[in-house]
Amino acid sequence: MAVKTPLWTPSEEKIRNANITRFMGEVNKRFGKNFKTYDELYQWSVDCIPDFWATFWDFAGIIHSKGYETVVDDPYKMPGAQWFIGAELNFAENLLRHRDARFHRAAGTAGRHGYPERRRVRPTPSAWRALWGCAAALGMDRARLDAFIRKRYAGAGLHRVADLRSMADLNRVLWGLKAMLRRGPRPARRTQPALRKAA
Description:
Largest sheet: 2 strands, antiparallel
Shape: globular
Low-confidence stretches: 100-119
Order of helices and strands: HHHHEEHEEHHH
Mean pLDDT: 79
Oligomer: single chain
Number of helices: 8
Helix content: 40-55%
Structural class: mainly alpha
Number of domains: 2
Strand order of the largest sheet: 1-2
Radius of gyration: 22 Å
């Protein structure tokens, strides 16, 4: 006999705070949609493949040294499609930034339904010192750091320093600053001297 009653349903608070809910809100805001269900979002992701993945790139805050020029060359060529053409990034850097997850599991405790309890971890003073130290090394004051955060991480809901309320958010920006420091200053673009016309 088929089970018609769900074994577990998330609370309204969990639904409201879920990443997929936040992502759906970003899609609605960016494209003027009014999606309210997973099925609606899924169908749009299939119908508008480049828009979906471009939005996800921003929402996930992908750390990169060079942005992409084209999301995908042929979304219907599977396998064989080329994704995020022109982008340059460090795969390991994007994986390691999740060492400090947005929510840390509280050791030795068990919450409802057998899952460990989770708590939001606020940025530590040492983390703030590291952030401002990297910013200073790059010649960034608060206004420039705000602009950097807004440009790189707006898709993840971060627009300024004041939005860094958790270790995960702060580390996300800190990794981006460290990546810039490792690359070092970019050489100035050389201009070709003007050619003189022969007399």
